[in-house]
């Protein structure tokens, strides 16, 4: 059974950056305004994520790493919405099957924090009361210790570290109200640091450079008939850095859409020389019923109804915003 769980877990969590994304989303779901991440060996050896969110109630601490444990269903209005993100209550469980987890968490109505250690979905010994602030700290150690084939593939700690910084960068652009920090355990200076309560433009300047931020153009559009909302910003500065700058959020989750990326690039082709990479950030809110529920959890690639209408809308918004800037 453990072997099957481990294989299933390996499908959901393929590298440290997947674990970070899942845990980061949990921090945000818990209403955190500060999230800090400390890593050793690109998260393969040690990955600590600390937030100042609502914390986990003691009675939930026993079961948080069990499959399908989620405190979030009550937030959803109907059953269709539950399938929005393809899977629920599987992230911590999956991580616990391929790593050792320690959680320290305190809610505002508890007098102290509680600490638990977990493996293979289960709490290993009874919870221990300890000191701590309101919020949650999760430490993931020796990721893939029991999956030698995976460890062999992920040899490059620098690359894994960079992928984590990229994930946090995207979330920092989408959530300027939240302060993020990423650093290596043995370094004093963080590699990424944003302040809670910043503006999106502040964070674009900080993370992508002030020259990009200076030329940023924003757009917003709501389609009542197809019930989607589109917001974003873009620049037509000739941005030729290697840093990926197509940031897409659907319903506040960072996702990939090759088709939408291509649609965006085709607009840019009219404005930019080949080989230059513009900065584009798009946030799309769609009614959950319109998202493809067959999406596999590991693939952040999504599909949704009215794709061509929505892509057209994105193209029109970009086009008019870039055209406007040229005149
Ligand atoms: P899901 O997010 O789909 O509910 P997860 O496995 O990611 O499933 O998390 C399981 C549960 O653990 C969450 O529903 C939440 O109750 C709790 N949890 C996890 N991380 C945090 C956190 N940082 N702050 C508060 N609660 C958390
Ligand atoms: Mg989650």
Automatic annotation (TrEMBL):
Superkingdom: Eukaryota
Domain DNA mismatch repair protein S5 as annotated: residue spans: 204-323
Subcellular location per the Swiss-Prot or TrEMBL entry: Nucleus
Family: Belongs to the DNA mismatch repair MutL/HexB family.
Protein name per the record: DNA mismatch repair protein S5 domain-containing protein
Organism, scientific name: Helobdella robusta (Californian leech)
Gene this chain is encoded by: 20211656
């Amino acid at each position: 059974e453990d072997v099957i769980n481990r294989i299933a877990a390996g499908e959901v969590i393929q590298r440290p950056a997947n674990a970070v994304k899942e845990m980061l989303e949990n921090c945000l779901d818990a209403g955190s305004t500060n999230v800090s991440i400390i890593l050793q060996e690109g998260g393969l050896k040690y990955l600590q994520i600390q937030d100042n969110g609502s914390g986990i109630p003691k009675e939930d601490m026993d079961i948080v790493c069990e499959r399908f444990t989620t405190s979030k269903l009550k937030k959803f209005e109907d059953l269709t919405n539950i399938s929005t993100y393809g899977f629920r209550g599987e992230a911590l469980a999956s991580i616990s099957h391929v790593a050792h987890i320690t959680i320290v968490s305190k809610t505002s109505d508890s007098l102290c924090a509680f600490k638990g250690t977990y493996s293979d979905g289960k709490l290993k010994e009874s919870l221990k009361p300890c000191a701590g602030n309101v919020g949650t700290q999760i430490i993931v150690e020796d990721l893939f210790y029991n999956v030698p084939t995976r460890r062999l593939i992920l040899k490059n700690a620098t690359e894994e570290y960079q992928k984590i910084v990229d994930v946090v960068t995207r979330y920092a652009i989408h959530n300027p109200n939240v302060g993020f920090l990423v650093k290596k355990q043995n370094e004093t200076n963080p590699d990424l640091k944003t302040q809670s309560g910043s503006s999106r433009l502040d964070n674009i300047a900080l993370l992508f450079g002030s020259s990009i931020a200076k030329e940023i153009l924003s757009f917003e559009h709501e389609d009542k008939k197809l019930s989607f909302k589109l917001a974003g910003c873009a620049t037509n500065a000739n941005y030729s850095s290697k840093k990926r700058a197509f940031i897409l959020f659907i319903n506040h989750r960072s996702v990939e859409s090759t088709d939408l990326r291509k649609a965006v690039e085709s607009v840019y082709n009219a404005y930019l020389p080949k080989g230059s990479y513009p900065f584009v950030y798009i946030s799309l809110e769609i009614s959950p019923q319109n998202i493809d529920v067959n999406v596999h959890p590991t693939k952040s690639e999504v599909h949704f109804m009215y794709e061509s209408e929505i892509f057209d809308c994105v193209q029109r918004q970009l086009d008019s915003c870039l055209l406007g800037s040229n005149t």
